[in-house]
Amino acid sequence: SDWRPFAAWYAVAGLVLWQLWPGVGAALRVPVAAYVLCLASMAAQAACWWLAVRRTGMAVFARRAAWGGALFVASDATLAWNRFLEPVPASALWILGTYWAAQLLIAASLRPQRPLHPRG
């Protein structure tokens, strides 16, 4: 298993938390930190899948998951920045645009399944 995506995404998570921390109230610090850790882990797992299958027929699906994970992190980081640090111009556009693109890519990462009973 490749540890590099985890190192990279945890570094991103650390930078995001470092920037947001002054604006996060004491009561929300543990939940926000836990959520950021979960998001980074999700994005890292998708990136690991892509790296593991990048030379196979599954690569297209894994690449979608990896990009979906990255956009999901971008969406929530923008949301948190807007909430805890400072207003983001056109925040709804950036937050929802990246969120829906992430959801589309994650859903598109599911490979088609063969029917249980072939029609004939």
How far is the first residue's CA from the last residue's CA?
Answer: 42 Å
| Low-pLDDT windows of residues | none
Radius of gyration: 17 Å
Give the integer mean of the pLDDT values.
Answer: 94
What is the approximate shape? Answer: globular
Structural class: mainly alpha
Task: Write a concise keyword list for the protein shown above.
mainly alpha, 4 helices
Question: What does this entry look like structurally?
Answer:
The protein is 75% helix and 0% strand. It is built from 4 helices and no strands. It is globular, with a radius of gyration of 17 Å. The model has no long low-confidence stretch (mean pLDDT 94). The longest helix has 28 residues, at 26-53. The chain is an all-alpha fold and 120 residues long.
Question: What's this, in brief?
Answer:
The chain is mainly α. It has helices at residues 4-20, 26-53, 59-85, 91-108.
Task: Detail the topology: elements first, then pairings.
Elements: H1 4-20, H2 26-53, H3 59-85, H4 91-108
Helix pairs in contact: 1-2, 2-3, 3-4
